[in-house]
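Student: I would love a firmer grasp of how sequence relates to backbone shape in proteins. Thank you; the sequence and its tokens follow:
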Amino acid sequence: MLPTVWDLFETHLFPASSTDELFNPYRDRHTSLDVADAPARRRDNLRAYLRCFDDAPPLFLLLEAPGPWGCRFTGVPITSESQLVDPAFPIDGTPTRRQEEPTTEYSASIFWRVLQPHFPHFFVWNSLPLHPHDADDPLSIRTPRRTEVRAWSDLLRGLLDALDPDRTIGVGRKGERALAEVGADPTYVRHPSQGGAKKFESGMSTIVAEMAGSA
């Protein structure tokens, strides 16, 4: 596992309070949506993710924020419950939603179809690690405000210092901007959502080939 990264999560992420428009899945639960021990399960899922790494990976990918059918219920960036319970998936985990059917997420399906063959040679995270939603709809998704993303710059900078990746990738413009604002030199790749699957796959294939060629 990456112990320094877990220490960063314990310091910055796990104690953070939810608000009317931001939900911390590692600390809190919604009584009508989550099982009773959901926050503990999501922290365990995140720990299982970190246990996949024997060493710090050379590639760091930053996305925008947890989606309502992926990380919000799993605690693992761009990963759905249906993936965590799939024996073929590289990360083991436990669902946290009260409904029996595990969640699925389109972006997560595309992301892992493209990158699973290269795992664990990359680390993926969110520029805003809390789920941004509309105040009256806990399962909606809204675009994070710049101030909300910047509030997590210390955690992002800490992750980059701890992992010291050879290359950083902003998956989507929000991820690219967040990396640039903490002094990284990111490469932009199209996010796989909203028709971006082919451009995401093409961009990541180019980057993986470039890194293999320079190894």
Remarks:
- Strands lie at 22-23, 59-63, 122-126, 131-132, 167-171, 187-189.
